Amino acid sequence: MDTATLSRPLRKPSSFHRAKRRIVRGLQIFALLLVLVYTLFPYYWAFVSSTKQGAALYHSALVPALDFTYYRQLIDNPIFMGSLLNSAYVAVCTTFLSLVIGVSAAYALGRIEFPQRRAVLMIVLMISIFPQVVVLSGMFELINWFGLFNRPSALILTYLLSTVPFTTWILTTFIREFPRELEEAAIIDGCSHFRILTKILLPLMGPSLASTGILAFILAWNEFLFALTFTLTDENRTVPVAIGLIAGTSRYEYPFGQIMAASVTVTLPLIAVVLVFQRRIVAGLTAGAVKG
Amino acid sequence: MASVSLHAVSKSFGTHAVIQGVELQIDDGEFVVFVGPSGCGKSTLLRIVAGLVAPSSGIVAIGGDDVTDVPASRRGVAFVFQSYALYPHMSVARNIGFALETLGMARDAVSQKVLGVARMLKVDHLMDRRPRELSGGQRQRVAIGRALVRQPEIFLFDEPLSNLDSDLRMEMRLEIARLHTELKTTMIYVTHDQSEAMTLADRIVVLNQGRVEQVGTPQQLYHAPDNRFVAGFIGSPRMNFLNVSSRQEGEVAVLTGAGNLSLALTTGDAQSGIAEIGIRPEALRLVAEGEGRIACILERVEDLGHEHFGYCRISDGTVWVIRLPQAPLPDRIGKPAGLDFAGSAVYAFAADGRRVAVGAGHVAEGPQP
Fold first, then answer.
1. How many helices (H) does chain A have, and how many strands (E)?
2. Distance from the A116 Cα atom to the nearest Cα atom in chain B, whole angstroms
3. How far apart are CA B346 and CA B348, in angstroms?
4. pLDDT of residue B361
5. Is the pLDDT of residue B364 over 60?
6. B-chain residues within 8 Å CB-CB of A181?
7. Do the domain assignments include residue B310?
8. A window 179-198, beta carbon within 8 A of B
9. pLDDT, mean of residues B37-60
10. Same domain, B22 and B152
11. Which of A69, A95, B69, B123 is 20–30 Å from B210 (CA)?
């Protein structure tokens, strides 16, 4: 055997490794900044545009003019404020209902043995495969039968179609990873399924409930197509549609500033919700990764 | 307090039979240990008794009543889990009292009972802590407390000590033994650790591949194993085995095998079919080369301070363990030696593992040249 290949390579000095570590760290920070700029710039641009008036809108200056006229106009606009309320109602109800349905379904699918379990899981997944456009006309009929056309409740019903499948799937995964012995201990202690769910599982599911709930909330808050189709009059619109339909004072004015101001305003509740639940979301995303 | 009996209990998951026709009678107040290698079905059997797993067939009776279809919470059993399974979001006090709370007992009565149990297990200073703030031993005590507070008729333990380090394991073992003496409740305890089984049990049930191999007191299992599996499983270090060929001369079986073994044993009948012999490490004596009943090479010695184990290789490659009264001289290591044993210490097994009864004291003299 060749002895040269066996001899250890010369050990580099410590300063070399220190410098290397610093360079790697610098590159990581640079990459992080790049991603941040990429994701945050559109929002910043919307904010900058919303504070500019008239011709200034067409200069691509990056500094906000800090003129809040459009925001004042928005607050004074009863239709826009009404649509904010509609959005809040729809999003909160959708989130609540999809969590209730999702948790019950997930407990059954994750824990209770029944022969069609796999089939049901697959069907739940299949439901979420169809693009909105495909189900749109069928949904429209359904909404009409229920007499819900042009009502915010119609939106709750239709949003459940997209939120329930993924809440069910995420929560099923969580419940499956849940230690079996904990549940057996509760059974020995005399708990019914319902009591196991409410007293043992739910208190421990906080993080995953928060993360799936937020996803459902964002989906319901941002949805446009169903909201546009199933509502007719201004007072029943949700915010994304209301923004899309904002008109200028004359047909020659494009209400660019108002739209931007509205977009910024609409995003604020989302940011607030995410910040409030941020810690729990992170905990939820990593749940089960490390044995506790 | 109650007796437990299992009649023709079987359990299979799909096509895989985990428990096969188990018959077992456990008396009131008895401490019974299920022991066996991992995957032998001992935990499943315990869960069948608890009602957490339904048997595929057979009858489970507690206190003489058929409880096969009675749910776990109505069987009057308490279960201590290997992972403790404490509710992570509840304080120690609530963990212990949760079963009573579920029963709808008044809050005062619950806290009084919980306090009594906690005092008994010396965890009353930890009542407000969460399980994650406790050490392994404390968690174990809380888990036992949770079982205790329900005043069950039967205690079921599923490898409760296997997550603890060895010092603590010894301590908790004593604690559980004390608990049994005080409460005199029927206890069933599952472990893969045969020393736990030997020290705790009134009777041991040895399980292998879903079947009961033998049921008996620790002494019966140790001194009179029914078959090769039990003989090999009970005892530490394990029994030494050697394949032999036997020639029957009337009621005497003449056995020959590796290491110049030559041994004659009296057997009850003329067709004993001995295929293997077993001798416990403590029954062996190290003697000079050419002496004793079997020739070997002393390969290695382990000095544990209070005891010494020698590892002897026999000509067919089998390594026998021998318990030595003192460490042999270093120059004997690696050299040929002989092993001697009394004829009464020999266990003989047929090819199917069944133990063959052999007469003691009728052993032919010395190794043949």
1. 14, 0
2. 16
3. 6
4. 47
5. no
6. 81-83, 85
7. yes
8. 179, 181-182, 184-191, 195
9. 91
10. yes
11. B69
- Rounded distance between C-alpha atoms, residue A89 and residue B92, angstroms: 41
Q: Identify the pLDDT of residue B33.
A: 94
Answer for the pair B116, B82: CB distance below 8 angstroms, yes or no.
no
Q: Crossing angle of helices B136-148/B107-120, nearest 10°?
A: 130
pLDDT of residue A211: 84
Cα distances (Å, whole numbers) of residue A61 to A35, A67, A258: 22, 14, 18
- Which residue type is seen at A138? G
Of the ranges A186-195, A227-236, B353-362, the best mean pLDDT one: A186-195
**Contact residues, A window 161-180, toward B, CB-based 8 Å cutoff:** 179
Whether B249 and B300 share a structural domain: yes
Q: Which chain B residues touch A189 with a CB distance below 8 Å?
A: 73, 98-99, 102, 146, 150
pLDDT tens-digit readout, A7-56: 677 788 889 999 999 999 999 999 999 999 999 998 888 888 888 776 66
Domain final residue, candidates B214, B232, B250: B232
Q: What is the pLDDT of residue A290?
A: 43
Predicted local confidence at residue B207, as pLDDT = 92
Which of A30-39, A132-141, B12-21 shows the highest mean pLDDT? A30-39
Tell me which amino acid residue B214 is: Q
| B366 falls within a domain | no
- Give the amino acid at A114: F
Q: What are phi and psi of B195, to 5 degrees?
A: -75, -35
Q: Is B104 on the interface with A (CB under 8 A)?
A: no
DSSP 8-state code for residue B349: E
Residues A75-86 as b or e (16 or more Cβ within 10 Å = b): eeeeebebbbeb
Judge: A179–B87 Cβ closer than 8 Å, yes or no. no
pLDDT digits (tens, 9 = 90+) for A239-290: 888 888 776 666 666 777 888 888 888 888 888 888 887 776 666 555 444 4
> What are the tens digits of pLDDT across the range A52-68?
776 666 677 777 777 78
Contact assignment for A184 to B79 by CB distance below 8 Å = yes
What CATH number did the domain enclosing B353 receive? 2.40.50.140
Q: What is the pLDDT of residues B145-154, one digit of tens each?
A: 999 898 889 9
Q: What is the share, in percent, of chain A residues with pLDDT greater than 70?
A: 89
On whether ipTM exceeds 0.90, the answer is: no
Rounded Cα distance between A157 and A151, Å, is 11
Give the domain CATH number at B191: 3.40.50.300
Residues of A in Cβ contact (< 8 Å) with B132: 292
- How many structural domains are present in chain B? 2
Does the A76-285 domain belong in CATH 1.10.3720.10? yes
Give the 3-state secondary structure of residue B268.
coil
